[in-house]
Amino acid sequence: MKVLVLNGPNLGRLDIRDSSIYGDMTYPVLVEHIENAAKTHGFEADVRQSNDEAEIIGWLHEAADTKTPVIINPAAFTHYSYAIRDAAELVKAPLIEVHLSNPLSREEFRHTSVISGVANGTIGGFGPNSYVLALIALKALIS
Length: 143
Ligand code: DQA
Known about the structure:
Blueprint: E1 2-7, H1 19-22, H2 27-40, E2 44-49, H3 53-66, E3 70-73, H4 82-89, E4 95-99, E5 121-124, H5 129-142
Parallel strand pairs: 1-2, 1-3, 3-4, 4-5
Helix pairs in contact: 3-4
1,3,4-trihydroxy-5-OXO-cyclohexanecarboxylic acid binds at residues 10, 73, 75-76, 78, 99-101, 103, 110.
C-alpha cells in the first residue's frame, strides 16, 4: 500500500539546521531511511518536501481524492497553518503528524499544533524514528 510522506518548510535543509535539535541526518538520507522502513512494514512511501504551503495543500487534496494514507511533518506550518489543517481534514484515510524534535520541549510557540486535532495521532521527539513509529502505527490502524 502507498503512503504519502509529506515534509514541510526547511526540512529539505537538515544539513544546515541545528544538529543538536534535528540530528545529523541529511534530508536525502532521511528519505532513504523512510523508504526502507516503509518497505519493511509493507508500504511504498512517496516522500515529498516543499517550502510552499499551496503545494502541500495540493498534495493533501491528492491524498483525499485517492484515499491514500498520509504521514506529515508540517514543520513550522504545524503551528499556524489553518489552510493545511483544513486540507488535512479532507483526508479520510489515516493521517499521522510527525516531528523530528519534541516541539513541546521547545519554545512556547511550538507548543501549539493546529494539525493535531485532525490527525489520528502525533509522534515527535524520536528523530528519524518518529517516521518509523508512524509507519508502525499506520500499519496497525489499517489492519
Ligand atoms: C519540526 C518542529 C517544528 O517546530 C519546526 O518548525 C520544524 C521541524 C520537527 O520535525 O521537529 O521545522 O516539525
